[in-house]
Each structure stands twice: as structure tokens, then as C-alpha cells.
Design goal:
about 160 residues; five-stranded mixed sheet; 5 strands
């Protein structure tokens, strides 16, 4: 069986939090698991960038008119299952995930789980946004939560909500 390829480009653009060994691989596994669960067909490319609170606040203000720090931002490139294509690789360009490493560290402590688990959850959550899911309505939120739980359980980082 031929597996579709997922290219995850990870950039660390912050200096506040040291990135633990294995975190990049976990993020790649999370992205792949979301796409597999969603029955995504074809090669895909996603960009994940680590930033600090100051940078995510700037991005949140610029793109969402919310002058506050947040944990993760998703910038989907596709709409209704239609994606731009990387002409060199043929991969569908899903979009960009931007994670505040400071916020992830803070939330991991608050929720009492590992930093790795928090970053993985934020990645899964954001990947679902890139695929068109939202959580503005209670039913949408419930659907997203079930999908998040399923992926997190598959990754061995099960329920903690």
C-alpha cells in the first residue's frame, strides 16, 4: 500500500523555550494522523512555526484584530477541499500553523500535563482548522473535540479534557 506523503516544515522562530528532543517528530506524527483520520488523499504540505508570546500577539492583532496573545493560530490556504499545489512536489498546500511556545508551556503547567502533549494537541487542533473545521457553534466544537481526542489517543496522549 502506497502512503501519501505529508511534508511538515517546522521553523523555530523563538528563543524563550528550548525545544525538547522528539517534539518535531511528534508534530509530524500528529499532522499525519489527522490527515489519515480525515481520509485526506494526495500529498500534503504544512508549515509549523514556533514563536513567542510577543510574536503571536502581533500576528493575532494583525490578522484577527485581537490584540492579545493566544496559544495557536491557523492560516488555511485551502477552501472547501480545494488547495493550492506546490508545483515542484505536487503536494496540496494546507497552510500554516503558528504555535506560541511560551503559551504552550504555560498551559501545560496549568493543565498538569507535559509540554509535548500540549504542543501536540495544539498541532492537532490547528490541523483540523486547516482542513476546514471550526468551533464557533457548540455542535462544531463537539465534532472537533471528538476528532482531537481520537488523534491524541492514537498518538498515545489520550483524553485529558
Amino acid at each position: 500500500m502506497v502512503h501519501d506523503k505529508v511534508r511538515v516544515v517546522i521553523t523555530d522562530s523563538q528563543k524563550k523555550i528550548r525545544i525538547p528532543t522528539g517534539l518535531r517528530m511528534l508534530i509530524r506524527r500528529a499532522c499525519t494522523a489527522v490527515l489519515r483520520n480525515e481520509g485526506f488523499k494526495g500529498h500534503a504540505e504544512v508549515s509549523v512555526t514556533f514563536v513567542d508570546n510577543e510574536e503571536i500577539r502581533r500576528l493575532n492583532a494583525r490578522f484577527r484584530d485581537k490584540d492579545t496573545e493566544t496559544d495557536v493560530l491557523s492560516f488555511p490556504l485551502g477552501e472547501n477541499g480545494e488547495y493550492d499545489i506546490n508545483h515542484d512536489t505536487g503536494a496540496k498546500l494546507l497552510g500554516d500553523v503558528v504555535i506560541s511556545m511560551e503559551k504552550a508551556d504555560e498551559q501545560a503547567r496549568t493543565f498538569g500535563h507535559s509540554f509535548e502533549r500540549e504542543v501536540c494537541y495544539l498541532t492537532v487542533h490547528s490541523m483540523l482548522h486547516l482542513l476546514g473545521y471550526d468551533h464557533m457553534e457548540p455542535e462544531e466544537k463537539r465534532v472537533m473535540r471528538v476528532k482531537e481526542e481520537s488523534v491524541m489517543t492514537q498518538l498515545g496522549l489520550g483524553a485529558s479534557f
